[in-house]
Design brief:
Strand content: 35-45%
CATH class: Mainly Beta
Distance between the termini: 29 Å
CATH topology: Pnp Oxidase, Chain A
Helix content: 10-25%
Largest sheet: 8 strands, antiparallel
Structural class: mainly beta
Oligomer: single chain
Number of domains: 1
Number of strands: 8
Shape: globular
Order of helices and strands: HEEEEHEEEE
Length: 141
């Protein structure tokens, strides 16, 4: 995927996964986020993400979408560096889904941005007949 498509997908979604190194192995953690000024922004509490951001560690962020019926999908991967922010200007930073104290604001810079698309499996046939106002998609599982 080109960069514009990757950015459009990032802007139109608000749930993803952040991967940070939590020695001896990486942790992949879910976050509610927003895209603003060339960074991924999210709230967090004390713990792995906050510690990584306070140390300005590199991290990766990923979102995806799939269509299991068509065996197709896409993914967008961001690589950058985490940072703690004192404040966040726009009002559209989503509230985290889990309760509890999430008093830290974290930004992940977008230093590298890539995307992949898995096209529908070849040989896939879309329904072409209509029976009584139905398109037979219910017959495909």
């Amino acid at each position: 995927m080109d960069e514009a498509t990757c950015r459009q997908l990032l802007a139109s979604h608000h749930f993803g996964r952040i991967a940070v190194n939590n020695d001896p192995s990486p942790d992949v953690l879910p976050v509610n986020y927003t895209l603003h000024n060339d960074a991924i922004w999210f709230h967090t509490g004390e713990g792995t993400k906050q510690t990584a951001a306070s140390r300005a560690l590199p991290a990766s962020f990923q979102i995806d979408g799939t269509d299991p019926n068509r065996h197709s999908g896409w993914s967008v991967l961001v690589r950058g560096r985490l940072a703690l922010a004192d404040r966040y200007e726009p009002t559209d930073l989503p509230d985290p889904w889990p309760g509890g104290d999430r008093g830290y604001i974290v930004a992940l810079s977008i230093d590298a941005l890539t995307g992949r698309r898995i096209p529908p499996q070849t040989g896939w046939v879309l329904p072409t007949h209509v029976w009584k106002d139905r398109d037979a998609s219910d017959l495909m599982g």
